[in-house]
TrEMBL record, chain B:
Lineage start: Bacteria, Bacillati, Actinomycetota, Actinomycetes, Cryptosporangiales
Keywords linked to the UniProt accession: FAD, Flavoprotein
InterPro entries on file: FAD-bd_PCMH, FAD-bd_PCMH-like_sf, FAD-bd_PCMH_sub2, FAD-linked_Oxase-like_C, Oxid_FAD_bind_N
Domain FAD-binding PCMH-type intervals: 1-167
Entry protein name: FAD-binding oxidoreductase
Molecular-function annotations in GO: catalytic activity; FAD binding
Organism: Cryptosporangium phraense
A matching Pfam family: FAD_binding_4
Length: 490, 360
């Protein structure tokens, strides 16, 4: 398409989108676009030029094709519950909301597979295959977050220490590439021959294309589940208990830790009868075959006591188990009662580094004069420090953000990662160069260019600086972003 | 021969500049798989260090040339293992490149699920890392998965970081015999729906008869196996069960015929067993996963097996170097992306050119 053709396509884009998805599903007024200006991370906001709500895979494909013809960037969005700004719109681009693609297309329990559209919520999958089967990845936002978003972010959750992450459960995808081509990666079967493009796509944060169909593996629900909460005087002692449990060869379904600040805040909200003023709480859940589960559970109780817990509470029934979890999952919202504002950080460390890392976080918090509450998936070393601040105090938000960044550096120094489940998005781009060398980022870019040489899918995310795709091999052609002076070739 | 990642990068850069076709080689234990062995061998024998083993974190970093058996011995000293149990032989790099797996696949997933980081050497001499050394990490793209099962066609896998698991406290296996493929498939399907936490669920089949094997691990492995044995009826419980599973692994290899790997669904099991009988073959299957390995006397039989099992993908592993079509057709759209991936990662086209799916 020549330059004039692109100009014309750009000019007519909104009208063309209206023809595809309908005028009542195409939004251009700033008031309407506000809905989409940010995801769950509110500090980044941008209005797209237009937002569309396609209702079918074919409409998604047509929308992407129109964007390709006009060389206009687009961002796919699920429930908007992400915490890294991954669904932040591109100003002047198209925002493609997939909420209407919310059908469960097929349930095949004989093969332990479910096929869903991307807008289906995470919790809806387990609901559809229960009670005999369930879908293990369980982000805290599972009642609202979408499977499409889970695929983009490779979402985890409390149970991933034992069960793994989204990437371990997606067996196939139907993807619309940025040139409008529809491809099938994997399927219902495992080990499709060829490159594992499926594995590369999951966790690619919307930068390689958009999914319109997702095949998931579900697993039989465990025969038994046993849950306890143990209280300790310190996170150090609780951390010791975690190490002892894991060292003994036990692989709990979940091990969650909360520190003193978090326990008190969550108790105010959930009313589970947790004692105030304790240094740490450990929620441990074992699941599996009934006899095995029971035998190991007794071991875990003893281990907690041996490591200094004088208060171990074992859930007596499903209602009490639900209450334990409600308290843990209340941790984030409950912090709103403690602090007017807070940043949720998401970093990972090798689990054995926990005591040293918590000490360093404490020291940093004192240095900055701010409160940091800690709640984390202790089994896999995924920390969620909550950096509390008062946005009404000039400069405090900036200080809190700086502290949150310093905490990530602590995670990296300990041999960890800048994100365990929230993704890089727009929020952590600046930290990518601390974790990866230029050659690594260049290798990432090679993958991105193989999928999206025009750079139209969710640009400005993941990579610390915008990079373009050189042609391989073939004659040089100027990139539209180059022509407009927005970017240079590296 | 290179003995460090930087030496490997220099060697590859020179070969890339010269346009010399290469093939990464570990121990050569699976050299004939998936097609030819053309190109200058790029041996990882000098990359043989266990870089890190962190027992408390259940992680390890290994250079590509470390034999799996050597690594497992090191991990076992801490009561751990890398939950990969393919047939004997092979290096870490080779196992990642071929994505081979054994019965443990049922419980622990495949190679792709156990690799947490990789160091790669690309044809322009670039050394690139992806992932990290922690179990949970979503920073950057997962190039480890892209290179897992890439058969040495994208670049050299120089170093691999893996997740480890605790060795099971004890094991026991329930074994039930069958002479009707449908009955075996039904039993496997019934088991797959039950809330068992089996370590392995395999089927074995040869000449119209076979068995279902279900292995449990843990402090109550024996009683779990007994309860499955009574569920199956006419089944035995074997406490000293290692030999049973060695036989399953051995059944995935064949020195003189060919091994055809079927990427199927659990509900295909009946059809797979009958297809093997029709060509005088034998089967080892991960019954609850839909994966099967059919050993046939002649690799040319792949055509007949593919027809019987269409549209499932059938790949020739052992014997793949003796047929022109070791790889099955793949989705044309996906194949186009794969070609673009190959062009980006191996622009010099030196890593086993033409040896992968779709002539990549």
């Amino acid at each position: 398409m020549g330059k004039d053709g692109i100009e014309a396509a750009r000019r007519d884009l909104v009208d063309a989108l209206r023809r595809v998805v309908g005028a009542d599903r195409t939004f251009t007024h700033p008031h309407e676009l506000r809905t989409y200006e940010s995801d769950g991370l509110l500090q980044y906001r941008a209005l797209p030029r237009v937002a569309v709500l396609p209702g079918t895979a074919a409409e998604v494909r047509d929308v992407v094709r129109l964007c390709a013809e006009a060389e206009v960037p687009w961002v796919a969005r699920g429930a908007g519950s992400g915490l890294s700004g991954g669904a932040l719109p591109v100003a002047d681009g198209v925002l493609v909301a997939l909420t209407r693609l919310n059908r469960i297309l097929e349930i095949d329990l004989d093969n332990a597979r479910v096929c869903v559209e991307p807008g289906v919520t995470n919790a809806a999958v387990s609901a559809a295959v229960g009670p005999d089967f369930f879908y293990p990845p369980d982000p805290s936002s599972q009642v609202v977050c979408s499977i499409g978003g889970n695929v983009a972010e490779n979402s985890g959750g409390a149970h991933c220490f034992k069960y793994g992450f989204t990437t371990n459960y997606v067996t196939g995808l139907e993807v619309v590439l940025t040139d409008g081509e529809v491809v099938r990666l994997g399927g219902e079967e495992l080990d499709a021959p060829g490159y594992d493009l499926l594995g590369a796509f999951v966790g690619s944060e919307g930068t390689l294309g958009v999914t319109t169909k997702i095949w998931l593996r579900v697993v039989p629900s465990p025969e038994a589940v046993r849950t306890l909460v143990a209280f300790f005087d310190s996170t150090h002692a609780a951390g010791e208990a975690v190490s002892e449990i894991v060292r003994a060869g036990v692989v709990p379904g979940a091990i969650e830790m909360m520190d003193a600040v978090t326990i008190d805040a969550a108790e105010q909200m959930a009313h589970a009868g947790y004692p105030v003023g304790r240094g740490a709480a450990l929620l441990v859940e074992l699941d599996g075959a009934a006899d095995e589960c029971e035998a190991l559970f007794q071991e875990v109780v003893k281990t907690c006591e041996r490591c200094g817990s004088d208060d171990v509470r074992v859930s007596r029934d499903e209602a009490e188990r639900a209450l334990f979890w409600k308290t843990r999952k209340a941790a984030f919202p409950a912090m709103g009662r403690v602090s007017p504002n807070y940043f949720v950080q998401d970093g990972v460390i090798p689990r054995t580094q926990l005591p040293e890392v918590l000490e360093r976080i404490d020291a940093l918090a004192s240095e900055y004069g701010l409160t940091v509450a800690n709640v984390f998936h202790a089994g896999d070393g995924n920390l969620h420090p909550l950096v509390c601040y008062d946005g009404r105090v000039p400069g405090e938000a900036e200080k809190a953000e700086e502290l949150a960044g310093a905490i990530l550096q602590v995670c990296l120094d300990a041999g960890g990662s800048i994100t365990g489940e929230h993704g890089v998005g727009v929020d952590k781009r600046k930290h990518m160069s601390k974790m990866f060398a230029d050659a690594d980022l260049d290798a990432f870019q090679r993958l991105r260019c193989a999928f999206d040489p025009a750079g139209l899918a969710n640009p400005g995310k993941v990579m610390p600086t915008p990079r373009l795709c050189g042609e391989v091999p073939g004659p040089y052609r100027q990139h539209p972003l180059e022509a407009s002076g927005l970017a240079e070739r590296f | 021969m290179f003995s460090s990642v930087s030496e490997a990068a220099e060697a590859v850069r020179e070969l890339g500049a010269a346009g010399t076709a290469v093939r990464p080689v570990g121990s050569g234990s699976r050299a004939g798989w998936g097609g030819g062995a053309a190109g200058t061998p790029l041996s990882t024998a000098g990359l043989n260090r266990i870089v890190e083993h962190n027992p408390g974190d259940f992680t390890a970093v290994l250079e590509a040339g470390v034999p799996l058996a050597v690594a497992q011995k090191q991990f076992a000293s801490a009561g751990q293992w890398l939950a990969l149990d393919p047939s004997p032989g092979g290096t870490i790099g080779g196992l990642v490149a071929t994505a081979d797996s054994g019965p443990a696949r049922h419980r622990y997933g495949g190679v792709r699920d156990l690799v947490i980081g990789v160091t790669l050497v690309l044809s322009d001499g670039t050394v690139a890392r992806s992932g990290g050394r922690v179990i949970k990490n979503v920073a950057g793209y997962d190039l480890g998965k892209l290179f897992t099962g890439s058969y040495g066609t994208l670049g050299l896998i120089a170093e691999v970081a893996v997740r480890l698991h605790p060795l099971p406290a004890g094991t026991a296996t329930a074994v039930a015999g069958f002479s009707d493929p449908s009955a075996l498939a039904r039993a496997a399907a019934d088991l797959a729906r039950r809330p068992l936490e089996a370590l392995h669920v395999d089927a074995a089949w040869r000449a119209g008869a076979g068995r279902l094997l279900v292995r449990f691990g843990g402090v109550t492995a024996g009683s779990q196996a007994s309860s499955v044995a009574s569920f199956l009826g006419q089944a035995d419980v074997v406490a000293d069960d290692e030999a049973l599973w060695d036989a399953q692994r051995a059944g995935q290899r064949c020195a003189d015929g060919a091994v055809l790997k079927v990427s199927g669904r659990p509900t295909d099991l009946d059809r797979v067993l009958r297809a093997a009988d029709a060509v005088g073959g034998s089967v080892v299957a991960r019954a609850a996963l839909g994966l099967a390995w059919i050993t046939v006397p002649d690799p040319a039989l792949v055509k007949q097996v593919r027809e019987a099992l269409a549209p499932r993908a059938v790949t020739v592993l052992d014997g793949g170097d003796r047929v022109p079509d070791a790889w099955p057709d793949v989705d044309p759209g996906a194949a186009a992306v794969m070609r673009r991936v190959k062009a980006r990662f191996d622009p010099a086209r030196i890593f086993r050119p033409g040896a992968f799916v779709g002539g990549i």
